Structure formats: C-alpha cells, structure tokens
Amino acid sequence: MSPWARPVVFFLLCLPLAWLIWAVYHDQLGANPAEALIRSLGDWTLRALVLVMAITPLRVTLGLSALARWRRMVGLFVFFYASLHLTAYAWFDMGFVWGEVLTDVIKRPFILVGMLSWCLLLLLALTSFNRAIRSMGARRWQLLHRCIYAVCALAVLHFFWMRAGKNDFAEVVVYAALLGTLLGWRAWRRFTTRPSPRPKS
Amino acid sequence: MIIRTQDSGFVHPTPSDITSPAQYLGRRAWLQSLALGAGGAALAGWAARDAWALAPIPGRLQALQASASKLAGAQTVEKLTSYQDASSYNNYYEFSTDKAQPAALSAGLQTHPWTVQVEGLVNKPKTFDIDSLLKLSAMEERVYRLRCVEGWSMVIPWVGYSLAALIKEVQPQTSAKYVEFVTLADPKVMPGLRSGVLDWPYTEGLRLDEAMHPLTLLAFGMYGEVLPNQNGAPVRLVVPWKYGFKSAKSLIKIRFTDKQPATAWNKAAAQEYGFYSNVNPDVSHPRWSQATERRIGEEGGLLARRRKTLMFNGYEAQVGQLYSGMDLRKLF
Questions:
Q1: What global pTM score does this model have?
Q2: Would you call A167 and B287 a contact, using CB atoms and an 8 Å cutoff?
Q3: Alpha-carbon torsion B49, B52, B58, B64, what sign?
Q4: Closest Cα partner for B210 from B291, B277, B310?
Q5: The predicted structure's pLDDT at residue B33
Q6: What is the pLDDT of residue B2?
Q7: What DSSP state is assigned to residue B92?
Q8: Using a CB-CB distance cutoff of 8 angstroms, which residues of chain B are in contact with residue A167?
Q9: Cα(B197)–Cα(B213) distance, integer angstroms
Q10: What CA–CA distances, in Å, run from B281 to A60, A95, B284, B309, B329?
Q11: Residue B28, C-beta contacts closer than 8 angstroms, at least 6 positions apart
Q12: Closest CA to B219 of B209, B229, B232, B230
C-alpha cells in the first residue's frame, strides 16, 4: 500500500466539510441554509460510519492488512462529523439555549437517540489513543469499542424516526441495508470461524 | 389617535421588517401605471428601473393585475420573502420530497386548459374552467405570513380573491358543514406519485365557516404574476392561520359534505397532523416544538435568531372567534 494512501483518505474525508464551508460562504445551500447544513452533516456522519464499518470486512476479505491502520482515523472522522452535526443543531435550531436543548432531548425520542449515539462516540474518541489501550488492557478496550455496533443501530433509528413523520424511508433503507450487511458479516464470521486451536500444555 | 394593539389584529413588526410606504400603498400598481406611460416616457424608464429595485416583480411569468386588499389582516408590513426563495423551496410531494426539486420537476405540468369541479351538497354544482375562475371576482394582492408545520416561515404577496366568492356562486345547502379539496394526481407528469409517502390524490379540508372566512384565499398568482407550477399553479388555496400543508395546491375538485373529510397528512400520521392544524405555539409537534420558527431569508442568514411563532400565525384577531369554546390541544 502506498505511503500516500492514508493522507489521501484523510484529505478526501475533509472534503465534505470544505464543500459545506464554501457553500455557506457562497450562499449555495438554498433558501434554508441552516436546515441544509444540519442535514448534510448528519448524512456525512452516516457515510463515515458506513466507511469505518466497512474497513474490517474489506481487510479480511481482500487480505489488505494495511487497512487496519486507517480504522482509528476514519472512526475519529465519524466523531468529528457527528460533533459538527450536533453543534449545528444546538446552534441553528436551538440558538445554544441549553435549557431548550435539554427539553428537546427529554421530550423527543429521536433527539434522545441521536444524543446517545454521540455520547457513545465521545467515549470511543476519548479512548482512541494508544495509551488508553495500554492502560485499559486490550480485551477491555475491545469490548468498549464494540459500542460502535450500538452506534450503528442508534444512528439508523435516529434517521428513521426523523423521516417517520414524512413516511419517507428511501434513504433510511439504504443506510440500514449497508450497516445491517456490515454488522451481519461480523455475526456470520463469529459463528462460522472456529476459535484457533490452542497448543496443548 | 388610534392606538393599534395585538387585540385589534395588529402584529407589531420589527423596524427592519417595515416595508417602505411605496410598497404599502400598492407600489406595484402605481409603478406599473407609471411605467405604462402615465408618467411620460422619461419617467417610464426611471419607474421601470425603480420598480426593479423596489418591487420584486420577477418578470418570469405572465403578469396578474391586482389591487391591494383592504381586508383586515391581509397586508402585513413585514419584509417579503424573495421570489427566488419562495419559488425554490417548496413542499410539493407529487413531484419530490426534496424541497429544491419541484421547481425543475414541475415544468411539464400543463396548467391550461384546467377545470375545477365544484360539487356535493350545493344547489348549483358546476365545473369552472380556469379562465372563468380568473374572472369570477376582482383580483386582490394580499401579503400573508406562511408558516410551515416544519418550523419555517415566509411572507408572500399572493394574488387572488376570497374563496367565499366562489362558494356563494354555488350556493351550499344547509346540510353542508365541510369543504373537501382534491388536488391533481397525474402520474404522467408527477414522478413523486410513485412513492407511497401519501395517499394520492392529496386531499385537504376545512369547516364551512373556515372556508367562508374572508381571509381564506383562492390564489392564482404571487408577486404580481401567475403562480409558478411548483407553488401550486394554476389555482391553490391559501389559509394563512393554518400550517402550510392545509393550503392545497393545483386544485381540481371542491366538494361540499356533511362529514369531516379525510385529509392526506392526517391519514398518514394522525398523531402529528390534526384536521384543524391551526398554527399554535403552545401545541408542539410530537417531534419538535412549534414555539418558534425560522423565517426564510431572515437578516443575519445562518446566525439569525428564530422568531416566536404567533397564535393563529398572527391572525387571532380575525379568526379566533371561529374556535371559541374549542379545546385546541385536543382538536389540534
């Protein structure tokens, strides 16, 4: 794998944000730029999530062990876009009135579910560096980071509930199918691969 | 000295909202008369230029002459939404659920010839063609606030006349209590019909007294021109004190009934969209609060504060009595 591969992926993952900043600056986001920003950042969070969940299946099926080195970076991009999405909502929809945000979280299941996913992502981002792995121990760290499976489910539910009132599930189905397949592949692998034989002592 | 208050139906605007006196005095009609030569050829050029700077006549579609409405509540002095925003940010699910799409996708909609069938519990049922509807009553320009259930709002200068004028023409019977509105559902030109988002055709309904209220407008145009297709050409309903989806677009049938008609959004999600759907800051939508709204094109753009939503969208003085004694939380 080329040494340029990672910086290129990093650059590509910055492009959506660059495009949005350009679009805001040049008034290219239509009549309701605030709504367009919030939704677009949500979309990019989901896309980054699909990407990070695809890394392990691709690594295993294509035998590209180098992909493992990308996982943390892409995972942090998921957290980054999720944080921007949350910030845009708190800012443009709620005017940073935290009391209103809290009321919204309590009153509206779809906001609560979104907030929960972000909290889990925060937990994973805070424990994403090498020292955290060492101090937690690899096994416990790995258990904690399986939270990403819950994030997938919650993110799809958040999107589904957001669209439920409009009965408009076309896009929800796409993300649910992609993430479902990627999670399904993991479950299938768990059931079909035998634990590696241990040397008899 | 008369002091106008909220009680008399006056919604106090913020200074930046206040339109110039020229517009308030029906500047378009005035400038057009100038441009048409009343002010002489030299003035005409100046007036046309000024009209361009002042009056947002888009100059894209056929003009629709009207005089400023004298009706109480029909001339809000808030800053108009730009024609660009009003005609490019549309909920018209028959074309697409994406608000930017209807403008392009509705180009194939044929709005002439067009008929509106008026039937049901009336003494004089009749099918009107669009040309006779355009002549049925004098065209007025009315500047209304439009509040969408999604939490955004606009200010739009509509052209049309009170629906009551048409209703009187067909003479409802005493048994008629409701009016149902049926809109076009033509799969040949409406790609959105393939989605099962709503039960097509899109239907809406009003109580007869709501339909007869002078503010309830049968609209044929906006910004001094005929309606763009994406805004519900050639004829639509505008009920300014209710959420936008009550104002059905591209009407083909108006039916008088004795039972409350089923309405499209109520059938799709009864808990979220009631039959009345009056704008009400105190009754939140299950998935968001209705206490505030984002005014499209607000000064300050992205950083603009949301506005407080007004009871009945600010038309309480005119329409509040229609709902006296009703529990608006239950009958939302």
A1: 0.84
A2: no
A3: negative
A4: B277
A5: 53
A6: 60
A7: B
A8: 196-198, 268-269
A9: 31
A10: 54, 17, 7, 6, 11
A11: B51, B55, B57, B141, B224
A12: B232
Apex B275 CA angle, B164 and B273, nearest 5: 130
Count of A–B CB contacts within 8 Å? Answer: 58
How close A24 comes to chain B (CA, Å)?
8
The mean per-residue pLDDT over the stretch A51-58 comes to 96
The three-point CA angle B234-B237-B240 to 5° equals: 135
Distance from CA of A169 to the nearest CA of B (A): 9
At position B182, the amino acid (one-letter code) is: V
Chain B contact for A104 (CB, 8 A cutoff): yes
Tokens matching residue A197: 């034989």
Nearest to B273 by CA among B263, B261, B260, B288: B263
> What is the Cα–Cα distance from B88 to A86, expressed in whole angstroms?
27
* Separation CA B223–CA B158 (nearest Å): 6
CA B146 to chain centre: 7
Cβ B319 vs Cβ B312: under 8 Å: yes
Reading the block at residue B151, the tokens are: 């939490």
Phi and psi at residue B125, to the nearest 5°: -60, 145
Rounded CA gap, A160 and A24, in Å?
Answer: 27
Interface-testing mutation among B149, B154, B288, B303, with chain A (most A C-beta atoms within 10 A): B288
Contact at 8 Å (CB) between B280 and B242?
A: no
pLDDT beyond 90 at B113: yes
Contacts of B285 in chain A (CB under 8 A): 165
pLDDT at B51: 36
At position B217, the amino acid (one-letter code) is L
| DSSP for residue B108 | G
Crossing angle of the two packed helices A71-88 and A109-126, in degrees rounded to 10 = 140
